[in-house]
Amino acid sequence: MNHTDTKYLRNHPTVRRILDESPHRPTETPVLEAAWLREIALEAGADDVGCVGLERAEMASQRDDILQAFPYAKTLLSFVCRMNRENLRTPSRSIANLEFHQSADAVNQTGRRIVQTLERHGIRAAHTAVGFPMEADRWPARMWVISHKPVAEAAGLGRMGLHRNIIHPVFGSFILLGTVVLDARIDNDSRPIDYNPCLECKLCVGACPTGAIGMDGHFDFSACYTHNYREFMGGFSDWAETVAASTSASDYRKKIGYAESVSLWQSLSFGANYKAAYCLSVCPAGEDVVRPFLEDRRRFIAEVMRPLQDKSETVYVIAGSDAEDHVRRRFPHKSAKRVRNTLRPTSIRTFLSGLPLVFQRGRASGLHATYHFSFTGEETLGVTVVIRDRTLAVREGLHGRPDFRITADGKTWLGFLAGEVSLFGALLRRKIRFKGPPRLLLAFGRCFPT
């Protein structure tokens, strides 16, 4: 800023008015009463509230990401808003999705009102979206700024259930979560509840059309993501590629039926729709929810779970996946439609971090093998992958004695996974090399179908 600019700034009416007032002296970080914050949040529309200091151990995995977005962050205010139960329980997805969308809007508006009130009191604060929009430029890596679930657990608003959703001790699974970041400390941190409201009734296991939730607590992320989020992010990209690859309208209709096109139009026009989320619908946990289940379990199952199980619908699956087997075995009246895996890595790092998400333990039955991956090129990295007893372990570095070795140029490997590079051609050009029984390579591929 030159001398003229400085003179103009000093003589600007706003600047003169501020400078004529008593000088502003920076104060220490304010310490707020948690009870006062709770009152603000409840008045803004929240149904329950908790506060967590960012220095808490539970926030260690999120701290760097939060500080990158909000360098002033010191406290996280977590809150829940209830959803209407019967709207989510109906087999009619239009009604259930309307409830999801309206509840998400309510959470975002509540967070905005909390921040407005805090700003009026001179407290620096911000809130993040309950769902979307997210940092789309990061796809397929972590797109969200704050993971609301661990914050809510630390704030005493519930615990993670078998279905991987937070269960509030009173409201049960029928909630959405929000988080507000504050440049202030609090006088009394909330603490996690000392029990899990999950009843382990396994109704979510029985209701899930893809078999994503195992009786033993195992969760198949890929199965849930492929079907329930078909019209979100990756599923939309897959649809767009299908449009681009179609040679004519009739060719497109062979791949995408009329009803699916209409559903996609509806998602684009009114907000992306969940295909199931039945795990929430049938959950009986929570003081406000559990009584009908306790009084007559058979009736609860008949009225709440059976209509979802009996519904004729398309279930989106990856070819050769455990989900495909589950639909055909457990729900023969539902139609399993094969789609491509949309969890496509864009780097070797995302390939490795994504392996646990797409691992199919059913396809790994009987496989006991150690794989060494040596990647060259822009991402030079050695990785050990062990598949044993239907479990997967991924560890950076080359450890132990391998049963199969793969050496690959990183870009070529990613192109092969995307279906853009021929494995045969890559082998001829020695961009990909392997040593070991070919059956182990085929067995590895079955565990991660595309």
UniProtKB/TrEMBL annotation:
Q: Gene3D superfamilies under this entry?
A: 3.30.70.3270, SCP2 sterol-binding domain
* Any one GO molecular-function label of the UniProt entry: iron-sulfur cluster binding
Looking at the record, the residues that make up the 4Fe-4S ferredoxin-type domain are 189-218
Q: At the top level of its lineage, which domain of life is listed?
A: Bacteria
Arranged from A to Z, the UniProt key words for this protein are:
Iron, Iron-sulfur, Metal-binding
What the entry lists under PANTHER family is as follows: IRON-SULFUR CLUSTER-BINDING PROTEIN, IRON-SULFUR CLUSTER-BINDING PROTEIN-RELATED
**Name of the molecule in the record:** 4Fe-4S binding domain protein
Which organism does this record belong to? Answer: Methylococcus capsulatus (strain ATCC 33009 / NCIMB 11132 / Bath)
